[in-house]
Amino acid sequence: MAARNVLLVYPRFTPGSFWNYRTTCEVIGKRCPAAPLGLITVAALLPADWRLRLVDRNAEELAPSDLDGADLVMTGGMMSQQRDTLDLIALCRAHGAPVAVGGPDATSSPHLYQDADFVVTGEAEGIIGEFVAAVERGQRSGFFAAEKYTVDVGHSPIPRFDLLNFDHYLQIGVQFSRGCPFTCEFCDIIELYGRVPRTKSADQMLAELEVLYRLGWRGHVDFVDDNLIGNKKAIKAFLPLLATWLAGKDYPFEFSTEASVNLADDDELLRLMRAANFFVVFCGIESADAETLAATRKRQNTRRDLADSIHRIHAAGMFVMGGFIVGFDTEKPGAVAATADLIERAALPVCMVGLLSALPNTQLARRLQREGRLHRNFEVMVSGEGDHCSVGLNFDTVRPRPDILRDCAWLIRELYRPERFFGRVRRLLRWLDCRGHRIGNPFPNDMYSLARLVWWAMVIRADMRREVWKTVAVCLVRNPTALHSVLRMIALYLHFGPFARYAADGLDAHIAAGASPWQRHHAAARALPDGVAAPASAHAVPAVRP
Fold first, then answer.
1. Strand locations in 344-430, DSSP E?
2. Can you list the positions of beta strands (E) in 105-236?
3. Confidence check: pLDDT of 57 > 80
4. Among 24-33, 144-153, 206-215, 381-390, which stretch is predicted with the lowest mean pLDDT?
5. Which of 58, 179, 183, 332 could cysteine-pair with 193, CB 3.0–4.6 Å?
6. Alpha carbon of 409 to those of 90, 325, 417: distances in Å?
7. Cα separations (Å) of 203 from 224, 229, 387?
């Protein structure tokens, strides 16, 4: 069988998103925040004689001529990439290039992608062999579904990091585990990956990091696990080996990840993560209201002082980024004020605030479907703009919808006023203990990036000049070891400050127009491809993820 030319295309995320860090990337001299780990993992599973090329549409343009020599195009991504993935499928079909689509959104909503020649659902390792065999024997179309939760990630290959242009990215991702032991009603991770976290071996993870090191990457590496501490026994066994490896290489990497807030309860785990050079953890906090947390089955966040738990993580040298949701059924008037108070007490500078959305195949979607409250086409992100901050509430709400939108707009706008944001950074310095954090030899672009950051913060963004100077001065006097983290937060605010105004103004416009963001986006957006309809029931959509 002749070797095949395969074009791997990573779709664009929607613009106007909390997570795109566009200005931060520009200041640091990068094009986008993160590399497409899922796609380069799929690339590693393909036959060695297939000739592969990667185009990341978040960092570079895809020209129609790029499709000319492609025997097959492979694409797919998350719900926030849905619109561009559909556009790519249309482009490939117009160009006569066979296209295969996979990834979490195609897995959750395969009916949306019926115009693709091949649809591949489930974890790639569990189905890629059947897909490759079909392509090799000349099959021109097909649907391939992996069995749920059966993949042994200990046999997952080292991702094809060599396909990446490192100059494009702020961080490179790796994955240690899949799955989460908790049962949060709104979360699709347990539906896609299962409740029993499966992990790679320590040797396997170190081999991936060794490849990254040899290819020349230095700096920020993100463990993309949805809950790194879901399997505490496995992560505790791995972290000491990671710390030893880092020391032997003079600390070429520093790490971020996502973990449940019960991380704060385990002093040993905090100590191990500090020794392994973790500097930031994203925690889903969701709400300050215990009734709401219990109702949405976020019980790991109850029976605790959340601010105190966050301070304990800060004391281990890792600053916390918090996730919060507005729109739960149990919310009462004034709930967002309590959330704002928690954020201030916890000294959380970076907070992701969004409207509740019912994701496909979640317990929340199934409950709302039973109650007759789930909107038609609830799983469709047909708009090319917006994210969870401005598009959500794809169901009939308990509280008046304008009140929820007004609360969300107030919270986003309040949290990112310069004096609020930088005030939290300065209070964070009371707890953030970065002693022992290592960044190794100075990275080649550090001084250049620092100079650009100073220029933007002091000249281009004059509105934040006073707060930046005050924050840096306080850091140098009270906690100089935290300067590296403080500079990161300043860089992030270059994006979050303007984005908060954009998102809040958009919510205000939705209120004035008398419609929800989801309703307005769907009314104004392009129609779905011919023949595509929403499933009759939320139960109709498979629940597995590559």
1. 351-355
2. 118-121, 142-145, 169-174, 177-178, 198-199, 219-223
3. yes
4. 381-390
5. 179
6. 36, 12, 12
7. 18, 18, 38
Count other C-beta atoms under 10 Å from residue 450's C-beta: 13
DSSP assignment, residue 460? I
Q: How far apart are the first and last CA of the chain?
A: 27
Whether the predicted pLDDT of 514 surpasses 90: no
Spatial CA neighbour of 245 closest among 226, 264, 221: 221
132: Cβ contacts below 8 Å, ≥ 6 apart: 46, 47
Confirm if 78 and 157 have CB atoms less than 8 A apart: no
Closest C-alpha among 17, 57, 84 to residue 526: 84
- Give the alpha-carbon dihedral of 512, 19, 486, 28, to 10 degrees: -120
Query: In this structure, are residues 156 and 208 in contact, taking their beta carbons and an 8 Å threshold?
Result: no
Which residue type, as a one-letter code, is found at position 87?
A: D
pTM of the model: 0.92
How far apart (Å, rounded) are the C-alpha atoms in residues 116 and 142? 9
Asked if 57 contacts 84 with a C-beta cutoff of 8 angstroms, the reply is yes
CA atoms within 13 A on the CB side of 175: 26
* CATH architecture observed for domain 5-151: 3-Layer(aba) Sandwich (3.40)
pLDDT in tens, 169-183: 999 999 999 999 999
* 3 state DSSP class of 211: helix
Let me know: does 203 contact 157? Beta carbons within 8 Å: no
pLDDT tens per residue across span 398-416: 999 999 999 999 999 999 9
Distance in angstroms (rounded) separating the CA atoms of residues 397 and 406: 14
Strands 198-199 and 177-178 turn out to be antiparallel
Q: What is the pLDDT of residues 132-152, one digit of tens each?
A: 999 999 999 999 999 999 999
What is the percent of the chain with per-residue pLDDT over 70, rounded to a whole number?
89
What is the distance between the alpha carbons of residues 541 and 162, in angstroms, rounded to a whole number? 35
Q: For 348-364, write each residue's pLDDT tens digit.
A: 999 999 999 999 999 99
Q: How far apart are CA 368 and CA 363, in angstroms?
A: 9
Residue 413 DSSP class: H
